[in-house]
């Protein structure tokens, strides 16, 4: 009871960046059960994890490990069956739908795998959408900086249908960055992109953490994508089983193959076709 | 394939229901019309069969004639005749409790036979017998609060009052005249005395007499029928009325079905677009184009069949409801339960299924165009993207729109005013509407921007997103809104017509009818009635009265060169009032030229004989033929007889006659105070004389016009309701389609309420586009119709009423969005995000 905070978040040595600051997002004994009785599926079984401010964390795990569910619960998109989720000082599990919605609008940014943008709005309108929803004015200098970082200056007037997949994801990044949220959740942001466009997007995400101090939590199954993060958290069967700091594609892959039973190492390596 | 189709239908019961609902309402209206008119007719038949049962043989005059009184005696002498009674009919004005004759028309005096030949139902008391007894029809007795045993006063044909004891209250059944005017019944002798008729309208015979024997006595001027045939003939004549009601209602039913067709077309078009992947998958696993086409048509047939069956039930309900409204216990329409004829079922099912299948034809064809590869491709938004009018739509628009406008313009501006011009405008309107349907998808974007301007500003980001959504699939929005355009357009057109007719009547009343009070008698009786001359003199003597104008007229044989003679009304107005109080409008010539020996003729009369200034007409008068020179032609408005002569000529040739109308102008200011009471007092001794003011006349026609508008509104209401279902349907399908988009918005911080508001605003915009287009078309064609209808009409735009239509449409549109919006708001964000 006396040393709870450091114990629950202390999965290992803290990363150099933002070590002193309190975590941006904390999950405490979070469980999630779908269905009931015999049909009950335990997607999360008491997950406790903290995400440091100003850090880029990746959540990895095999299919069905619960990584997407964890992200949905952390982001206030889904309710938990047990435990607590804290965003800063706010207990998300105590909030009603409307409060959660406003919290998402004001304090969280999202990048999804696909269908990130409203087809009826231009790139600029899509970027500014969360601000407009909140009735906030965009900070012109900040907007310009974000737009320049993602390199979309000449594409602002285009609609999503007129943009490539990579450009669309960059618009989504800009939208997530422009509100200066406490944390950005990215769900397989490069899942639908070719490797070059994916590398670009991941580059921006890492740059936004390094240069703008942004906090990012990314769910991915791609070891290369995970290698852009400062820290990788590994999930299996609804629990956190391992973590890795300063990852490289190879270390991530090794850890993954250990998790899935060791023998798959080479095949996993082949499946992910480690080009970089 | 059939199994796949049916499985698909079962999986989407709600969708099926919503689609079917449009056809249910349309079929319901049509079936309801048949149920109502069939039930009415069955009631009429039943009643006639019953009453004709009592008559063995009936003697009727040939068309328009009468039966001489002595025929009755001869018929009675025919061997086998046990009883024969003649029917006497004429005016016998009942005096109401206020001392004035009841109703606008005098009540009918009818002979009521006693004994077996009494064909009317006795509700209370007994049939009249003797010179001091009378009976009343139920409606009149109830309205005037006369009860059996009381004394009533009835005027005879010379307007002399007679007092009778009310001994019974009768149900005159389906006797049109008695129902419309009210009836007073006497025994035959009294009826003859009161009505002044010495002839019979019908002789009913009881007994075992041979029809031929009676016919031999009746002679060639009479028709002799068996009771059974009489019943059938009367029933057929009454049936003609239900036929008119049926036709009128079916026209509105047709409008509803047309709207249903649009809604169904749209639903299927959207469904096919959304099912593109599913369809492509079917193509991948080997479904042929023909099978896909058949599948969609089967689906539509099932939807149509279910919708139509429900529609029949709705129709039965509507019919019952209408009967309950029109056919209460004291209604003129007899009913003996609901009639659901096999024909109604057949027509309902046929119309429902056929319309649904036809509406699904184009979407079904679109389904066959889906290539198998699209199953594998990433999903494109169905129906979205930029819309370009294809050549087909341009062709339709050009081929119908331009000629339509030309035809309507020709009808309104060039053709002679009247019915044919009106029909020309209507035809033009139909063509233009076709063009609007073709062009609508291209109009949706600009119209959406206009309609969405205010909501986008007021409702913030959700509002702006809604405007974008309403504009994003132009074809879909166009069809959805067009359905509403039909109802609102027709409604607006009727409103414009009503307002214009009213305004025209007001203006005419003010300009050519500058009188304060008008005195007339009851009209429409079998004998024309006139006002007593001395009443005009009494009115002139009143200090409150400034001017008294008498209009006199006679029906006289008129002839001119070229065409043969015909009866026309020749009349005169008080000389001092002509040109001052009453100012006839001259279309050629002028009032100054009207002197003794001359005549001003109304335009239709001039047209008939091709009369011009300088032509002569001959009028046969009791004092020999009168040659009159035409000095002018007059318009139809105002109290001016078709042949207007000077008062001096009129008196010289037709003698001093009673006036048919008296106009009274009160003195202005204090001098005129109490004028109404004074005029009423002067008219008091003459029970059939009624005093009306311009305001009362105005109120009367205003009421009639408004009533008409309410009826049309109620009948068009269904078409509008169906269109609203169309909006709900389109939105529901759009919500399904945009599940992920909604989820994204919710993730980004759009609250449930904002999401609901978004859908409401989208519905609002669609409703506004539809209603706005309807208003524009309705006003334009209302104007064209009113211009085509008659000369000198005043066009009036009922702003307030149209604004109410638009507001109602907008509110109803938002109401239509409630369920789809709730569905959108309830959807789980995570499920939608995960589900790909």
UniProtKB/TrEMBL annotation, chain A:
Q: Which Gene3D superfamilies match?
A: P-loop containing nucleotide triphosphate hydrolases
Residue ranges occupied by any ABC transporter domain in the UniProt entry? 28-262
Signal as a keyword of this entry, yes or no, is no
| Start and end residues of each stretch annotated as Disordered | 1-21
Keyword annotations: ATP-binding, Nucleotide-binding, Transport
In this chain, composition skew of type Low complexity spans 12-21
Enumerate the GO terms in the molecular function aspect. ATP binding; ATP hydrolysis activity; transmembrane transporter activity
Report the SMART domains cross-referenced here. Answer: AAA
What is one term from the GO cellular component aspect held by the record?
plasma membrane
> What is the name attached to this protein's record?
ABC transporter ATP-binding protein
TrEMBL record, chain B:
The UniProt keywords, alphabetically, are: Cell membrane, Membrane, Transmembrane, Transmembrane helix
Question: Which family, according to the similarity comment?
Answer: Belongs to the ABC-4 integral membrane protein family.
Give the source lineage, highest ranks first. Bacteria, Bacillati, Actinomycetota, Actinomycetes, Streptosporangiales
Q: What main location does UniProt list?
A: membrane
Q: What species does this protein belong to?
A: Actinomadura rubrobrunea
Q: Which Pfam families match?
A: FtsX, MacB_PCD
**What is the protein's name according to its record?**
Membrane protein
Can you give the residue ranges of the ABC3 transporter permease C-terminal domain?
251-372, 715-828
Q: Which GO terms describe its cellular component?
A: plasma membrane
Task: State the coiled-coil residue ranges.
Answer: none
Where are the bilayer-spanning segments? 16-36, 249-272, 292-325, 345-364, 394-415, 421-444, 481-501, 707-736, 763-786, 798-819
Molecular function in Gene Ontology = transmembrane transporter activity
Q: Where is the MacB-like periplasmic core domain?
A: 17-217, 477-681
Where found in the cell? Answer: Cell membrane
């Amino acid at each position: 009871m006396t040393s709870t905070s450091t114990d629950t978040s202390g999965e290992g040595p803290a990363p150099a960046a933002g070590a002193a600051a309190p975590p941006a997002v904390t999950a405490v004994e979070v469980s999630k059960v779908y269905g009931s009785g015999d049909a009950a599926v335990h997607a999360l079984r008491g997950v406790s994890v903290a995400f440091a401010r100003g850090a880029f964390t990746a959540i990895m795990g095999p299919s069905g490990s619960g990584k997407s569910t964890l992200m949905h619960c952390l982001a206030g998109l889904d309710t938990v069956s047990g435990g607590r989720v804290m965003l800063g000082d706010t207990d998300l599990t105590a909030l009603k739908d409307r409060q959660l919605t406003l919290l998402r609008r004001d304090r969280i940014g999202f990048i999804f795998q696909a269908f990130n943008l409203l087809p009826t709005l231009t790139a600029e309108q899509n970027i500014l959408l969360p601000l407009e929803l909140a009735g906030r004015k965009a900070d012109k200098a900040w907007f310009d900086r974000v737009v320049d970082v993602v390199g979309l200056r000449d594409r602002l007037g285009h609609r999503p249908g007129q943009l490539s997949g990579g450009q669309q994801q960059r618009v989504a990044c800009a939208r997530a960055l422009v509100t200066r949220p406490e944390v950005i959740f990215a769900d397989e942001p490069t899942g639908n992109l070719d490797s070059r466009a994916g590398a670009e997007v991941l580059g921006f995400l890492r740059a936004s953490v390094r240069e703008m101090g942004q906090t990012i939590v990314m769910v991915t199954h791609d070891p290369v994508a995970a290698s852009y993060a400062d820290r990788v958290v590994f999930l299996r069967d609804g629990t956190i089983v391992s973590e890795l700091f300063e990852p490289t594609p190879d270390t991530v892959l090794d850890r993954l193959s250990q998790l899935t039973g060791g023998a798959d190492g080479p095949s996993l390596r082949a499946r992910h076709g480690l080009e970089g | 394939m059939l199994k796949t189709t049916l499985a698909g239908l079962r999986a989407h019961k709600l969708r099926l229901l919503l689609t079917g609902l449009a056809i249910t309402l349309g079929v319901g209206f049509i079936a309801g019309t048949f149920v109502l008119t069939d039930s009415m007719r069955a009631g009429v038949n039943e009643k006639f069969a019953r009453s004709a049962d009592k008559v063995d043989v009936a003697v009727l005059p040939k068309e328009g004639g009468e039966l001489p009184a002595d025929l009755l005696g001869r018929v009675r002498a025919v061997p086998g005749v046990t009883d024969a009674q003649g029917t006497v009919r004429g005016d016998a004005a009942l005096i109401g409790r206020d001392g004035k004759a009841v109703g606008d028309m005098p009540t009918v005096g009818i002979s009521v036979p006693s004994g077996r030949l009494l064909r009317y139902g006795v509700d209370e008391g007994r049939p009249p017998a003797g010179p001091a007894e009378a009976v009343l029809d139920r409606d009149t007795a109830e309205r005037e609060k006369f009860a059996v045993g009381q004394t009533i006063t009835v005027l005879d044909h010379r307007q002399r009052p007679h007092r009778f004891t009310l001994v019974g209250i009768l149900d005159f059944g389906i006797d049109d005249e008695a129902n419309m005017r009210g009836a007073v019944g006497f025994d035959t002798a009294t009826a003859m005395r009161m009505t002044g008729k010495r002839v019979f309208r019908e002789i009913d015979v009881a007994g075992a007499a041979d029809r031929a024997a009676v016919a031999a006595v009746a002679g060639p001027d009479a028709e002799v029928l068996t009771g059974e045939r009489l019943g059938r003939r009367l029933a057929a004549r009454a049936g003609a009325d239900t036929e008119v009601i049926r036709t009128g209602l079916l026209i509105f039913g047709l409008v509803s079905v047309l709207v249903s067709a649009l809604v169904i077309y749209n639903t299927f078009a959207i469904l096919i677009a959304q099912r593109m992947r599913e369809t492509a998958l079917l193509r991948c696993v080997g479904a042929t184009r023909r099978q896909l086409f058949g599948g969609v048509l089967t689906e539509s047939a099932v939807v149509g069949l279910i919708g139509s069956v429900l529609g029949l039930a709705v129709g039965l309900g509507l019919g019952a409801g209408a009967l309950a409204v029109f056919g209460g216990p004291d209604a003129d329409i007899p009913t003996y339960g609901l009639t659901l004829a096999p024909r109604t079922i057949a027509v309902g099912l046929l119309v429902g299924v056929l319309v649904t299948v036809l509406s699904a034809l184009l979407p079904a064809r679109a389904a066959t165009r889906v290539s198998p590869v699209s199953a594998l491709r990433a999903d494109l938004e169905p129906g979205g993207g930029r819309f370009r009018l294809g050549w087909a739509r341009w062709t339709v628009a050009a081929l119908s729109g331009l000629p339509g406008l030309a035809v309507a313009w020709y009808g309104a501006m060039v053709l002679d005013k009247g019915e044919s011009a009106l029909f020309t405008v209507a035809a033009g309107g139909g063509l233009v509407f076709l063009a609007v349907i073709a062009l609508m998808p291209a109009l949706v974007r600009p119209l959406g921007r206009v309609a969405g301007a205010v909501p986008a500003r007021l409702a913030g980001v959700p509002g702006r997103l809604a405007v974008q959504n309403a504009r994003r699939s132009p074809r879909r929005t166009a069809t959805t809104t067009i359905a509403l355009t039909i109802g609102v357009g027709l409604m607006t057109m009727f409103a414009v017509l009503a307002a214009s007719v009213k305004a025209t009547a007001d203006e005419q009343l003010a300009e050519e009818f500058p009188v304060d009070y008008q005195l007339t008698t009851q009209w429409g009786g079998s004998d024309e009635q006139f006002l007593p001359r001395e009443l005009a003199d009494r009115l002139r003597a009143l200090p409150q009265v400034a001017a008294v104008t008498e209009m006199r007229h006679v029906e006289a044989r008129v002839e001119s060169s070229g065409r043969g003679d015909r009866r026309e009304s020749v009349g005169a107005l008080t000389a001092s009032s002509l040109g001052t109080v009453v100012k006839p409008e001259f279309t050629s010539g002028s009032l100054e030229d009207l002197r003794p020996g001359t005549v001003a003729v109304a335009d239709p009369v001039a047209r008939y004989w091709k009369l011009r200034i300088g032509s002569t007409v001959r009028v046969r008068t009791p004092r020999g033929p009168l040659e009159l020179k035409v000095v002018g032609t007059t318009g139809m408005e105002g109290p001016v007889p078709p042949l207007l002569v000077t008062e001096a000529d009129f008196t010289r040739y037709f003698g001093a006659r009673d006036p048919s109308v008296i106009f009274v102008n009160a003195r202005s200011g204090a001098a005129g105070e109490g004028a109404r009471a004074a005029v009423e007092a002067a008219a008091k001794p003459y029970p059939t004389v009624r005093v009306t003011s311009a305001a009362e006349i105005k109120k009367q026609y205003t009421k009639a016009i408004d009533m008409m508008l309410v009826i049309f509104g109620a009948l068009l209401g269904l078409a509008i309701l169906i269109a609203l279902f169309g909006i709900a349907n389109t939105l529901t399908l759009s919500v399904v389609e945009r599940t992920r988009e909604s989820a994204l918005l919710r993730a980004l911080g759009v609250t449930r309420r904002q999401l609901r508001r978004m859908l409401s605003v989208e519905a609002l915009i669609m409703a506004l586009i539809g209603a706005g287009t309807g208003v524009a078309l309705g006003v334009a064609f209302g104007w064209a119709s009113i211009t085509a209808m008659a000369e000198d009409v005043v066009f009036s735009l009922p702003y307030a009423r149209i604004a109410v239509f638009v507001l109602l449409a907008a509110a109803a549109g938002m109401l239509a969005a409630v369920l789809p919006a709730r569905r959108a708001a309830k959807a789980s964000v995570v499920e939608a995000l995960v589900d790909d």
